[in-house]
Hints:
The chain is mainly α. 61% of the residues lie in helices and 0% in strands.
Amino acid sequence: MKASAKVLFAIIAGLAVLLPFASDDPDGLETVAQNADVEEPEGLWHGLMPDYSIPAIENPYFSTLASGIAGIFLVLIFTFLVGVASTRIARD
Length: 92
């Protein structure tokens, strides 16, 4: 197994183990907005994974885990594509 695959597996395993310890409390900016009674406007688009979950999966643990894994792969794919594009520009 390649070293990069081992690292990816370790990240996903770490995500699965540490996910139950994620805080349900709002972050600092959200807390300030709640304390100031600021209402969040209705958005035009709710995104593919609102609140770090996948709406099609009912179990909140697996929904958040799948969302995290999908996010990892999206970042890896984007980073790979930027790397390929930048090396092609550098060669030309």
